[in-house]
Design goal:
Helix content is 18%, strand content 37%. Strands 1, 3, 5, 6, 8, 9, 11, 12, 14, 15, 17, 18 and 20 form a 13-stranded parallel beta sheet that branches. It has a seven-stranded parallel beta sheet with strand order 2-4-7-10-13-16-19, with no helix packed on it. The chain is elongated, with a radius of gyration of 29 Å. The longest helix is centred in the N-terminal third of the chain and has 43 residues, at 7-49. It has one helix at residues 7-49; strands at 54-60, 64-66, 73-81, 89-92, 97-100, 105-108, 116-120, 127-131, 143-147, 155-157, 159-162, 168-173, 178-180, 183-185, 190-195, 201-203, 206-208, 215-217, 224-226, 229-231. With 235 residues, it is of the alpha/beta class.
Length: 235
């Protein structure tokens, strides 16, 4: 049987077909645009949050900030925060991780010069000082040292110090930083080693699983520890 379609109906069918083709094409273009946008945002996130690494070493003689955008900071040599003409402050933003790539330390101040550390993290975004090894062990790096108290003492709040060696995770000599809400763990010797005229205040912190004592003090200052847990240290 032959079927005849009038010219008006034929034009209407062609019009519908053309509309459908345009509609499908526009949806494909829209989907491709959305996919490309999501891919670009994902690549930007990976670049900013996974591959961001900042290599640091040497002397910090002026106020400096280590930002979350630059984290992790990879320490490739000893770092000294001090100056003969001023008291430089190293400020570390919440969430920053500092990884030591060998037997290096972060030294705040100097027996003859002054410097300061302002490391204030948060409960959700602590500041971490740790080893850069894939399988870290206690003693992988030297620790954080404080010397020669500045006019405004250093502050550590919501900080984690782990896998350090030398005398302790934190070494205090004639310096009295405040240490709050922090964790010192898995260090080769003491969690905190105190000498000289040092009077640190430790609050709401956990000092555990260190190779010798949790806190060792041989100085002349007064050490204040409150609302803290000191446990599972060797001595």
């Amino acid at each position: 049987m032959d079927i005849f379609i009038s010219s008006k109906i034929e034009k209407k069918l062609l019009s519908i077909a053309n509309y459908n083709n345009k509609f499908i094409s526009s949806r494909i273009v829209g989907s491709l645009f959305l996919f490309t946008l999501i891919l670009l945002l994902l690549l930007s996130f990976i670049e900013n949050n996974v591959f961001a690494e900042t290599y640091v070493s040497g002397i910090i003689s002026k106020d400096t900030t280590w930002t979350l955008a630059g984290s992790p900071y990879i320490v490739t040599g000893d770092i000294y925060v001090n100056s003969s003409t001023s008291e430089p402050t190293l400020t570390i933003e919440p969430g920053v991780t500092v990884k030591f790539n060998g037997n290096y330390f972060l030294q705040i101040g100097h027996p003859y010069y002054k410097g300061r550390l302002n490391a204030q993290g948060t409960a959700l975004n602590p500041i971490i000082f740790t080893s850069n090894k894939a399988t870290p062990m206690s003693g992988d790096w030297r620790g954080v040292e404080f010397h020669n108290r500045p006019s405004v003492e250093s502050v550590l709040d919501y900080v984690i110090v782990e896998y350090a060696g030398s005398n302790g995770g934190l070494f205090l000599s004639n310096s009295s930083p405040s240490i709050n809400n922090s964790i010192l763990r898995n260090n080769k010797y003491s969690g905190i080693y105190i000498t000289g005229n040092s009077s640190p205040v430790v609050k709401n912190s956990t000092i555990s699983n260190n190779g010798t004592s949790g806190v060792y003090s041989s100085g002349t200052g007064n050490v204040t520890i409150s609302d803290s847990i000191i446990s599972n240290n060797v001595t």
